[in-house]
């Protein structure tokens, strides 16, 4: 009975904290890009973030994760508990998406350094979906119900209803390594779209970028709207050089500048994957199928391409020269200037056999960013419904007029 009273008290404190979200600056005056700080929760000031946890993997590595608010339309928690984290924390294979993947891992909630007695650890049942196909996200099912976690004082967070590409003030709550105060840390920064072309290895087009003070172990942590506390993205890549002085001429190198940002991916499209509180990866509006796309010659991929002239003085455009394999029997593709258009069904090619798959169409003629969109299909007649476009693979290059028009320095 004593424990039940404690949990009820904790839950009440959490509800009171949530009700005041709109009434105060969640960053408590923190200046954007300032050093992160450890959250002390002895006075229950940060119960709203008790659902951000430390994800411990069988390999010994750790990531961060956040408990999703998947209450049904009546506001009741009727289904399992689900976490959102980075796909690379679960299954690290570029171009691959998996469903119902066994995962030996656990998550620790109430991860505040000054309240170790309140930390609660739960096993992960399975990775319901994990993707490195145009995004870096994973949905994990916890071996507990959402209702039981809420009763234990763990507060889930909502996904933002819509993705915004405008710059906005954001907070990051993560469970990084390397600090004496082992617990959640808060960082403040501005978040905005990184655009179609991102000159940083392993980052897909249309990631969001920020300069929060993030550290190893922060992958999978939520970026939050500073006013509403809604999840605007999940951290994928952390800038290892952010806290070191910029090298000479960094401002003149797009690669150098890109490497000094953190990157995250929006997950608002996952709203349609939860039906009455249960994750459904093959619903009418949520087709998150397994994908296996392997780039045949990844060493040939280029960030920058340029026009040349032949012996007759004619302009010669570069080509994609993109070889790949795909488990699906057919694929369709298109090229666009804005990678957001990859998720629009219009202008895709007819279905092409994936046997010896090779895309070698010209890039251009306009200078600037160009994105390649590829999606596997089961048959030549399969239509690209909006749900299926969740599985689109994207890659991008920058076309310049001459080889020297853009610096090609790449930080590894």
Task: Walk me through this protein's architecture.
The protein has 412 residues and is mostly beta strands. Helices cover 7% and strands 34% of the residues. The chain has three helices and 28 strands. Strands 9-10-11-14-13-12 form a six-stranded antiparallel barrel. It starts with a helix and ends in a 12-residue tail after the last strand. The model is unreliable at 1-10, 15-22 and 405-412 (pLDDT under 50).
Features:
412 residues, mainly beta, six-stranded antiparallel β-barrel, 3 helices, 28 strands, 34% strand, globular, disordered C terminus
Task: Report a brief summary of the structure.
The protein is 7% helix and 34% strand.
Detail the topology: elements first, then pairings:
Elements: H1 2-19, E1 37-38, E2 52-57, E3 62-67, E4 80-85, E5 96-101, E6 105-109, E7 120-131, E8 137-145, H2 146-151, E9 168-174, E10 185-193, E11 208-210, E12 222-225, E13 231-237, H3 254-258, E14 262-265, E15 274-275, E16 278-279, E17 282-283, E18 286-287, E19 291-295, E20 304-306, E21 308-309, E22 315-316, E23 322-326, E24 330-336, E25 352-353, E26 358-359, E27 368-377, E28 393-400
Radius of gyration, rounded? 22 Å
Extended strand count:
28
User: In percent, how helical is the residue content?
Assistant: under 10%
Through-space gap between termini: 56 Å
Spatial sequence of strands, sheet with the most strands: 9-10-11-14-13-12
Taken as a percent bin, the fraction of beta residues is 25-35%
Q: Judging from the principal axes of the Cα atoms, what is the shape?
A: globular
Structural class: mainly beta
- pLDDT averaged residue by residue: 89
Major sheet details: 6 strands, antiparallel, barrel
The poorly predicted ranges are 1-10, 15-22, 405-412
Number of helices: 3
